[in-house]
Write a structure and sequence with these properties.
Structural class: mainly alpha
Strand content: 5-15%
Number of helices: 7
Shape: globular
Distance between the termini: 56 Å
Number of domains: 1
Order of helices and strands: EHHHHEHEEEEEHH
Largest sheet: 3 strands, antiparallel
Low-confidence stretches: none
């Protein structure tokens, strides 16, 4: 069974929408109230971030669980319904906010919560795959990073807790649509996923260690996509200006 590009893209778009809304909610809060400068302001931001992380983390987990169950059903497997992973606890949200607030960069602060939301969805897939002895593969989406390519080059593997780090997925960042797909028959895949291609990219990269190869791929990918990266930064800047304008208008009212 091959998951069509259309079906996979639709699933990824739904996950992205949830993650984007979480990030934009934090950005909007910061535009209204600013980056915290007092303990009380920090506590207020943490409370808001925890509520946002909870709301959108639950949505990401529900999407991942629904996709997991649908994949199992199409494979003819009768399993217990997928269990949504828990959202990030408040102490973890607090660490993310306090750590990134030091940068005084609104996008970085917001991305830290977007990352926790995305992680909840990925955790849902991974935890249920381990429970059900499925296989998984990391599926790149779009212009992905060197580390994602390295993960994708591993191909389909038995789901194992060894891939978890601190009980969570090994590699999650907010500005990334890559995620795990699962299978139960040893032959299913996602249209366009070519682990051999990614393995060749990894093996052909300069360097002897994995770290050296990943860094070499990063440099090469940046050189290839420099113009697109600059355009994305410009788009992000325009979105930030729009949020600033909306927050200013509400303040005036």
């Amino acid at each position: 069974m091959i998951t069509s590009k259309r079906a996979w893209d639709r699933y990824i778009a739904a996950l992205r929408k949830v993650n984007d809304e979480a990030t934009e909610s934090i950005l909007y809060y910061l535009q209204q109230f600013g980056i915290p400068s007092t303990p009380d302001e920090m506590d207020a931001l943490i409370d808001a971030a925890f509520a946002i992380s909870n709301k959108y983390g639950e949505a990401a987990a529900a999407l991942a669980a629904e996709w997991y169950d649908a994949t199992a059903a199409l494979a003819g497997r009768t399993l217990d319904p997928a269990v949504p992973a828990p959202t990030a606890p408040i102490d973890e949200v607090a660490r993310a906010i306090v750590g990134t607030a030091k940068t005084q960069n609104e996008e970085i602060i917001a991305a830290s919560i977007g990352r926790l939301v995305k992680r909840t969805g990925v955790d849902t897939t991974m935890q249920n795959a381990i429970r059900d002895n499925a296989e998984w593969a990391w599926i790149p989406v779009g212009d992905t990073c060197a580390f994602c390519i390295t993960l994708a080059s591993r191909g389909w593997q038995p789901a194992s807790a060894k891939a978890l780090k601190g009980g969570h997925a090994e590699h999650i960042h907010a500005n990334c649509d890559c995620t795990y797909q699962i299978r139960f028959d040893g032959s299913s895949s996602v249209a366009g996923y070519d682990p051999d291609k990614y393995l060749k990219m990894y093996e052909d990269a300069e360097g002897r260690s994995s770290k050296d190869k990943i860094n070499a791929m990063r440099r090469e990918l940046y050189a290839e996509n420099r113009e697109k990266i600059l355009e994305q930064k410009a788009d992000a800047y325009e979105k930030r200006k729009e949020l600033n304008s909306s927050a200013a208008e509400e303040t005036d009212v």
